[in-house]
């Protein structure tokens, strides 16, 4: 059984996730923890649950999702995996981080790359990698079939979708990929987004104004 712990960090109110199995093997997804107080919240949970972090995963590499990358890598000595089409996105963060007030941002390099022909193993649990670009050129989501959950980053939100006006964004492509890669999942699949509350595939099919059955875009 896959367990999921959600934290909301930084001024962007970004959702950071810890995914872990029954034996404590864990992956940290999109660490938005920037301030030391936020880092301590994440670290304290890992220690209190006796977790063993093994992987650091980015759904994509916009600033709000990678603020804690360097700290997580250093603290837990684990590799960072991203999609190779988001390398430029990750590398660009250092140039503009101070514009958003993140003067202490530390850049870090990926240790490997995600692709859709692989599964990610977290102890006894397996995540399917699905490629859903449009919000970012290398955006992926992580689907756990047995639990019926998807860590969706900034692709699909409750009654909304990821913005596509940032460099590398593509509105038409995002709509297409949501329909082919996310709406092909069972309706009861729970979506854990990069911001805001959880939702489900079935709810978004019926209610999302961008990609739902009554979409006007």
TrEMBL record:
Entry-linked Pfam families: Lactamase_B
Superkingdom of this protein's organism: Bacteria
Co-factor requirement: Zn(2+)
Keyword Kinase: no
Gene Ontology MF annotations: hydrolase activity; metal ion binding
Keyword vocabulary terms for this entry: Hydrolase, Metal-binding, Zinc
Keyword field contains Zinc: yes
Transmembrane segments: none
Annotated ranges, domain Metallo-beta-lactamase: 13-195
Matching InterPro entries: MBL_Glyoxalase_II, Metallo-B-lactamas, RibonucZ/Hydroxyglut_hydro
Name of the protein: Glyoxylase, beta-lactamase superfamily II
Species this protein is from: Algoriphagus faecimaris
Lineage: Bacteria, Pseudomonadati, Bacteroidota, Cytophagia, Cytophagales
């Amino acid at each position: 059984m896959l367990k999921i712990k959600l934290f909301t960090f930084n001024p962007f109110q970004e959702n950071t996730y810890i995914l872990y199995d029954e034996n404590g093997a864990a992956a940290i997804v999109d660490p938005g923890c920037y301030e030391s107080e936020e880092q301590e919240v994440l670290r304290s949970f890992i220690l209190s649950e006796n977790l063993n972090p093994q992987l650091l995963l980015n759904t994509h590499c916009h600033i709000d999702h990678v603020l804690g990358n360097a700290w997580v890598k250093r603290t837990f000595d684990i590799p960072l995996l991203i999609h190779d089409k988001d390398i430029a996105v990750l590398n660009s963060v250092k140039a503009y981080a101070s514009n958003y007030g993140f003067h202490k941002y530390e850049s870090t390099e990926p240790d490997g790359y995600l692709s859709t022909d692989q599964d990610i193993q977290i102890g006894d649990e397996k995540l399917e990698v699905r490629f859903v670009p449009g919000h970012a050129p290398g955006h992926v989501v992580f689907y756990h079939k047995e639990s019926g959950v998807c860590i969706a980053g900034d692709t699909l939100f409750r009654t909304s979708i990821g913005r596509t006006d940032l460099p590398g964004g593509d509105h038409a492509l995002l709509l297409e990929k949501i329909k082919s890669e996310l709406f092909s999942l069972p309706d009861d699949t729970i979506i854990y987004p990069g911001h805001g509350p959880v939702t489900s595939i079935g709810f978004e099919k019926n209610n999302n104004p961008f990609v739902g059955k009554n979409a006007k875009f």
